[in-house]
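Look at one such:
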Amino acid sequence: MADALDLAAARLEELGAEQERLRAELRQQVEEFGFTPPRADKSKRLLGTFYQFTLTVGLSTEIKDAEVERIRAICPDGLFKRLFKTVTMYKLADGATLALADRLPEGAPRNLRMLFSKAVETKETAPRLRVEKMVDECITSSP
C-alpha cells in the first residue's frame, strides 16, 4: 500500500510540474500574441479554436497604518478624508492620487507627498491565466 501511495504522490508531482510548464508556456504566448479586450486594460486575450485564454495582471495596495497616522496628525481633516477613509484599517480613498497631483491646499504639510509614498505601497500581483472552453465539443486527438 505504501508503494502505491508513493507512486500516486510522485505522479501528482509530475502532473503539477507539467501543468506549471504548460501554464508558463500559455502565459508567454498570450503576453506575446494576445490583444487587449475592451474595457480590460490589465488583460490580454488570445483565442484558440476551442478555448479562449485571458491573462490578467492586477495591482495590490498596502496601506501602512503607522505612516497614515503620521499624515493624519499633521494634515487638515478635510484633506485627510480626501486621501484616506477610516475603516477598521485604512483604505485608499477614491481620488487620493488626484488630490496629491493637484496643488496642495493651504495647511497641507510640505512633505505630504513623501509621507504618502511611505504610507502607500502599490505592488503588481502575479498574473492570472484563465482558460475557458468556447465550444461544447473539443477534439483532442487526430483521427
Observations:
- Helices lie at 2-33, 65-74, 77-83, 96-101, 112-119.
- Residues 62-123 form one domain.
- Strands lie at 43-47, 51-56, 59-63, 84-86, 90-92, 120-124, 128-133.
